[in-house]
Amino acid sequence: QVHVVESGGGLVQAGGSLRLSCAASGRPFSTYAMGWFRQAPGKEREFVAAISRSEITTDYSDSVKGRFTISRDNAKNMVYLQMNSLKPEDTAVYYCAAESSRRIGVRRGQYDYEYWGQGTQVTVSS
């Protein structure tokens, strides 16, 4: 079992930045690929970014590529999402998730991830 907790959400003006953090505990952190997803009101949960166990591979949705950066610190059991040039359409609840399949690379599908945090709200004002 893995316990996942996000933090760092808040209210920011368009063009601003936020850094989300995700702490994972319960099993060796380096055995999990990690992902960030988001869900806006009335919309489906969508993939944002993912990072492989070894940090070698990262993946981003087209909507955030070039603005968001995912990273991890396996020594601290942490994964981060640096969000720059935020837009009002980035407003959503952001979720961190862990995937333990040990497959090479990263996954974009939410059903590939077994463990989820409770989410943190990000609101971008125009």
Relative helix content? under 10%
Evaluate the radius of gyration. Answer: 13 Å
Shape: globular
Report how far the terminal alpha carbons are from each other: 40 Å
Unreliable residue stretches: none
Quaternary structure state of the chains depicted: single chain
Number of beta strands? 11
Describe this protein's structure.
This protein has 126 residues and is mostly beta strands. It has strands at residues 3-7, 10-13, 18-25, 33-39, 46-51, 58-60, 68-73, 78-83, 92-99, 115-116, 120-125. The strands form two sheets. Strands 2, 4, 5, 6, 9, 10 and 11 form a seven-stranded mixed sheet that branches. Strands 1-3-8-7 form a four-stranded antiparallel sheet, with no helix packed on it. It is globular and about 40 Å long. 34% of the residues are buried.
Helix and strand topology:
Layout: E1 3-7, E2 10-13, E3 18-25, E4 33-39, E5 46-51, E6 58-60, E7 68-73, E8 78-83, E9 92-99, E10 115-116, E11 120-125
Parallel strand pairs: 2-11
Antiparallel strand pairs: 1-3, 3-8, 4-5, 4-9, 5-6, 7-8, 9-10, 9-11
Brief overview, please?
The protein is mostly beta strands and 126 residues long. 0% of the residues lie in helices and 48% in strands. Strands 2, 4, 5, 6, 9, 10 and 11 form a 7-stranded mixed beta sheet that branches. A 4-stranded antiparallel beta sheet has the order 1-3-8-7, with no helix packed on it.
Question: Main attributes?
Answer:
single chain; 126 residues; mainly beta; 7-stranded mixed β-sheet; 4-stranded antiparallel β-sheet; 0% helix; 48% strand
